[in-house]
């Protein structure tokens, strides 16, 4: 079988060295591209004028790196709070514009937990916000990609099906599904096949039932990372050491014809570079067998 699996990416912020040094390290560990946080600091769109954007694009080109996606995740409750959505949507649109300037059509985000009841007022608030984001992204040929994990794949698909365009899509993270909802990440690929535009390669374990609201209710990445020690029933672990069936996951991605990035995410641990190098080797070894 000829592999159709895409290139290898890393979330460059995982190295914690600053933007340029993070990019250098991403190249050193063997990545083809990078996903970069763009919500604050050096990468916040309002801090990057035209000259800085051109210089960053040139630096990426010199390293031979692509941008797989930017991340515009503003925490809180995602897009469940109508009052906050005004500024979050405005900032998200600025990140989309920056992503396209850097050569990527994808901005990843968390939108908050999609309610089970479609008649829940919060469901309508989230629909409204996502319809605005989708229309903006579609007008530019881009996608806002929702990360999987807060709700089962079937509920997320129903929500996406209810939107007015496909400018809001999916950033598929199998470990979040294993760790939090207990959803099957392999079957989820088939459920969400029409929406997957970016993926994460991350592993984890789940030891007991987890309430998604305990994890994703406030969408604080610092708090979520702190929970990864297993104290509330799940742990993120180095690639290949958890409960994600990667051969089946990769095979499912290949089966649906996914050719986008496989982006390594390592949110915890005190040896991120070593864990990321291990993950790059893991993916390359798998691809070499196809």
TrEMBL record:
Q: Where is the Xylose isomerase-like TIM barrel domain?
A: 23-285
Swiss-Prot/TrEMBL keywords? Isomerase
Molecular function via GO: isomerase activity
Pfam families for the chain: AP_endonuc_2
Listed InterPro entries: IolE/XylAMocC-like (IPR050312), Xyl_isomerase-like_sf (IPR036237), Xyl_isomerase-like_TIM-brl (IPR013022)
Q: What is this protein called?
A: Sugar phosphate isomerase/epimerase family protein
To which species is this protein native?
A: Paenibacillus nicotianae
């Amino acid at each position: 079988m000829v592999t159709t699996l895409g290139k290898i990416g890393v979330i460059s912020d995982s190295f914690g060295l600053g933007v340029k040094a993070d990019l250098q390290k991403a190249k050193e560990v063997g990545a083809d591209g990078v996903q970069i946080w763009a919500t604050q600091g050096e990468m916040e769109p309002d801090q990057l004028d035209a000259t800085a954007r051109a210089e960053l694009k040139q630096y990426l080109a010199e390293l031979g790196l692509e941008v797989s996606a930017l991340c515009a995740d503003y925490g809180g409750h995602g897009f469940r709070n109508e009052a906050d959505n005004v500024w979050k949507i405005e900032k998200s649109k600025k990140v989309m514009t920056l992503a396209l300037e850097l050569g990527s059509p994808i901005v990843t985000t968390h939108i908050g937990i999609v309610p089970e009841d479609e008649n829940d007022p919060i469901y309508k608030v989230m629909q409204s916000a996502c319809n605005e984001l989708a229309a903006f992204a579609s007008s530019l040929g881009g996608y806002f990609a929702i990360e999987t994990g807060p709700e089962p794949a079937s509920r997320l698909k129903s929500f996406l099906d209810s939107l007015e365009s496909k400018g809001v899509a999916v950033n598929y993270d199998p470990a979040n599904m294993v760790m939090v909802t207990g959803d099957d990440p392999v079957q989820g690929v088939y459920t969400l096949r029409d929406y997957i535009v970016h993926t994460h390669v991350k592993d984890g374990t789940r030891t007991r039932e987890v309430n998604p609201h305990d994890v994703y209710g406030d969408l604080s990445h610092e708090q979520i990372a702190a929970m990864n020690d297993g104290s509330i029933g799940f742990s993120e672990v180095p690639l290949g050491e958890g409960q994600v069936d990667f051969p089946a996951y990769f095979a499912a991605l290949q089966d649906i014809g996914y050719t986008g990035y496989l982006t390594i995410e390592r949110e915890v641990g005190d040896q991120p570079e070593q864990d990321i190098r291990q993950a790059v080797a893991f993916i390359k070894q798998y691809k070499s067998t196809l």
